[in-house]
Amino acid sequence: MGAVIRIEPAAGLTGNIVVPGDKSISHRSIMLAGLAKTPVLVKNFLFAQDCLSTVSCMQALGVKVEQKAGHELVVTGNGLRGLVEPDNILDAGNSGTTLRLLLGILAAQPFFSAFTGDASLRSRPMGRVIKPLADMGAVIAARRKGRLLPLSIAPAAGRLTGIDYHMPMASAQVKSAVLLAGMFADGTTTVTEPYASRDHTERMLETFGAGLEKNGTAVRLRGVAELSAPAAIEVPGDISSAAFWLVAASIIPGSKVTLSNVGINPTRTGILDVLGQMGADIQLTNERWSGREPVADITVKHARLQGVSIDGAIIPRLVDEIPVLAVAAMFAAGRTIISGAEELRVKETDRLKAVATEFTKLGGLITETKDGLLIDPSPNLRSAVCYSYHDHRIAMALAVAGAAAQGVEIEQPDCVAISYPGFYAQLNRFNG
Ligand SMILES: O=C(O)C1=C[C@@H](OP(=O)(O)O)[C@@H](O)[C@H](O)C1
Ligand SMILES: C=C(OP(=O)(O)O)C(=O)O
């Protein structure tokens, strides 16, 4: 693709877009299927770099993964206690989800393993997962006093012990790591979050026969002897990928686009709620179930947007959509205030800083605060050379801003392959 991509202004978005499979659910489908005894067909798997990192780690742990036609995989594991010691360091690449969820699984294994990742992942906080796992009896050593990759996991002295863990932040990755370790532990494991984060792990554990109890934001799980796998899992389209089109169509005049087969799990639909509050014209049709995950087709038309204030429980429900929500806010009337979003500082890059710095280069009226963003209507957006920070969501948010205004040049654009390899090709179809 090259070191820089030029995004041209787009005409109205029309027609149908099929967004790729959900990244969170794709990761979990490979991990849980890989711990089952019978083969699982995974349909609409996301063939993107992050999920492929999970595939290669699971293969290194002795799980067979075969690619079938299209977006299908067959995963064949060796049962809940059938993983084998990897003969090299596992590489999670750019993927926080791969690393943190697998850490929960590997913390409970009777063998040694070690992890590294790319430069971004090596700077992201791992203490938040290592601490509760260590409380369960896991033996994990990591760089910078147990906080950063690379890290190693030694076999625990005996079986892990269930804990009652109150998480300091809402994080599906931390919650999932503890629950996955809890499957292998003696007794019960309870995790409580300050606000509800995505619950795909809980839903998929139930699909694989592991009983859970939920009470508010608390989830409780007992140790499991063996999983019982479904014959097939169908991964819904990713609402976090759909979000780029929801915003692009809302702000580009003449747009009317239908996004088919998008996951609408309520722990993920904050973007629909907030765009709706801003005055977006969004309709859901054909609501149905894909296993335990709800899906729908979503039609979005251009609309006049209003600024909005968001904080608190909504943030985990749209945590990855904030960069593109900031684009919607630049095109809205009135100020938008985003707070309680300090978690964005520990994603692939510091997303609050990246959004404020790069959108300012485009003429956006946007200021970073300690835990969020202040965004004013920005009528004089211009073209500029902007930087992705190698962060897929920053690159795609910049592309949407450029497409809706005077174009943009994005340095280091290839990172979209982390979650949405066909993104630029799809956007090019709408060149004005
Ligand atoms: O569990 C998951 O699949 C994810 C959880 C979120 O991270 P946190 O758990 O750090 O909030 C999210 O940002 C990430 O893209 C995917
Ligand atoms: C934060 C993200 O992913 P991860 O934490 O898995 O790297 C993301 O996809 O926006």
From TrEMBL:
Subunit text: Monomer.
Gene3D superfamilies reported in the protein's UniProt record: Enolpyruvate transferase domain (3.65.10.10)
Localization annotation: Cytoplasm
Any one GO BP annotation for this protein: chorismate biosynthetic process
Family: Belongs to the EPSP synthase family.
Identification of the protein by name: 3-phosphoshikimate 1-carboxyvinyltransferase
Keyword set includes Transferase: yes
Key words of the record: Amino-acid biosynthesis, Aromatic amino acid biosynthesis, Cytoplasm, Transferase
Binding positions for 3-phosphoshikimate per the UniProt entry: 23-24, 28, 171, 173, 320, 347
